[in-house]
């Protein structure tokens, strides 16, 4: 049948293996994509509003509930903002423990995403459960690594989902040395697993797809970025996170109840592991750079499908960095600093597993919130996902059967690891061909 | 017919679905996070719908539907009714599904204020929100009959696997009736309220989390919801005696489980608004 005249409509109720749910509207007219909208039906949860009037540590407990997969990103982002607001200078001990705990979240999130959500796409399985039948060792290895991340979170927060250990100025409790020591042999063993994962992923078949977007990440003065205040872009810009609004714009798009972000000029911007590794390759220790080069990928890479490799390399780095912190650990009886609340305006930023998490608080003289802003990595990436879908579906071939187009579209979306649970809950793919 | 009698006819190899409503996905992680148990579970039951894990068949007939999240939109009212109609048993999990969860803090606003919220957070083109949004975030049981409930924000892996196992064996999942204090006493955890003068809701909050917060040296903030026998008046008197203002006390109960009757009603009665 002539492609130009075909009219088809496909509905897929929910996009599987994505955190949260959304819809995709795709229209193909005369062999061209005429509409491509990632629609997110967010039952708005209004964290920004109901947290007004709350004290700092109540906010830290509450914002975890924005997302079950990266609760700490919000807790850490807001802690940073409050500490900036109250002029708290973290001790090296607190800084290291914050980093350790957050690396736990990177490890947990990266291995969960790569093994259970993303990898099945490359190997043609519908789920990680199905994939595990043919790849039991690989899946169990990923699960082991993910559990190690959870264990780190548990050490400092009592549990991995919505951990309870962090407060403004530090932690409620310092772990004893022997509790930290039990992690050391596990982290050592994990290095081998993590290296094998990088090798396994580098053998996956990667479709071609170049993303032209401006890449953005935090930049740390000496190491791979997790907590930092400087932002860099692939266009060579550098600015402080406090000037975020002068460079990027967050807005509400009609088709979505999640917010979108672009540059001030309206171009899509890419956040997340691929941007991070591209812009901070020089901050990886030399032997990890070698490991990254040994995958056969030429870094910087603009193939969005390489995100799965970027995640596995970051996972390796995170395990190694966590090991270093644990080996140097000493107990303190001062896991938190005192502070005097005051009226202030402040920003906090962290590299969440999926990209920069930016939070802003406006506080009254008691330190209670009078206004709150939360920018999640997914909202920054939404316009990119849409633009990427257009280009990669065209590269893939619009004359392919609807089912293949749908699977490919889902695979593109999953590469971003969109975490729309903070927002959105319903994905229907409507393909209309005219 | 009592639940155990009904459960006698529970399928030998049941079909299970996991549905998400307005939530953070944290409760379903109790299954995904422990993939080893999930893989084992998949050998005993057919998981026919679990969007985040992979399988999709939203309105299939199932023996057990596990529900996370609260109902916040018109669309979701329709969806939960469909899910209920197709499920023999419904198990609600987590604070969102049981009490509306943290997003139920919107229930304290009136319609006018909610409009302000909508415009503040979504300044442009808000119709899509205004049309879809309900003025309240309510628990699953406000719309359909729920057979079993597991509290917690989040629930934990042990809790849900135990509940599923009990249902598979034809037994109604047991409920925790004690407060967090019970675990503290059993585990020999020093009482943070006595030793450090830290406000702790442990005496009126349901056990089941293994007293995570007191073990970390901090007070419980109530994520497992009210305990069965909670002396709220004594708790509030104690918090006042510790120097907390009415506003601070109100915020403590108007948090993750704000719509739980025990918390909601007593706060309204005891604390000047
Ligand atoms: S109860 Fe808590 S952990 Fe569970 S879905 Fe709701 S917010 Fe997330
Ligand atoms: S101690 Fe209280 S707040 Fe902490 S995890 Fe348990 S129930 Fe939740």
From TrEMBL, chain A:
| InterPro entries assigned to the protein according to its UniProt record, in alphabetical order | Ni-dep_hyd_lsu, Ni-dep_hyd_lsu_Ni_BS, NiFe-Hase_large
Q: What are the required cofactors?
A: Fe cation; Ni(2+)
List positions binding Mg(2+): 48, 374, 425
Q: Which SUPFAM superfamilies match?
A: HydB/Nqo4-like (SSF56762)
State where Ni(2+) binds: 67, 70, 419
Query: Which GO MF terms are attached to this record?
Result: ferredoxin hydrogenase activity; nickel cation binding
Q: Where does Fe cation bind?
A: 70, 422
Q: Which UniProt keywords apply?
A: Iron, Magnesium, Metal-binding, Nickel, Oxidoreductase
Record Pfam families: NiFeSe_Hases
Protein name per the record? Ni/Fe hydrogenase subunit alpha
Name its species: Aquella oligotrophica
Tell me the lineage of the source organism: Bacteria, Pseudomonadati, Pseudomonadota, Betaproteobacteria, Neisseriales
UniProtKB/TrEMBL annotation, chain B:
What GO terms are given for molecular function? 3 iron, 4 sulfur cluster binding; oxidoreductase activity
Task: Record the organism.
Answer: Aquella oligotrophica
Query: Does this UniProt record's set of keywords contain Phosphoprotein?
Result: no
Q: Which UniProt keywords apply?
A: 3Fe-4S, Iron, Iron-sulfur, Metal-binding, Oxidoreductase
Query: Which Gene3D superfamilies does the UniProt entry name for this protein?
Result: NADH:ubiquinone oxidoreductase-like, 20kDa subunit
The UniProt record lists the NADH:ubiquinone oxidoreductase-like 20kDa subunit domain at 24-166
Superkingdom of this entry's organism? Answer: Bacteria
Q: Name one Pfam family in it.
A: Oxidored_q6
List the cofactors.
[3Fe-4S] cluster
Q: Which InterPro entries match?
A: Hydrogenase_assoc-protein, NADH_UbQ_OxRdtase-like_20kDa, NiFe_Hase_small_N_sf
In Swiss-Prot or TrEMBL terms, this protein is called Sulfhydrogenase subunit delta
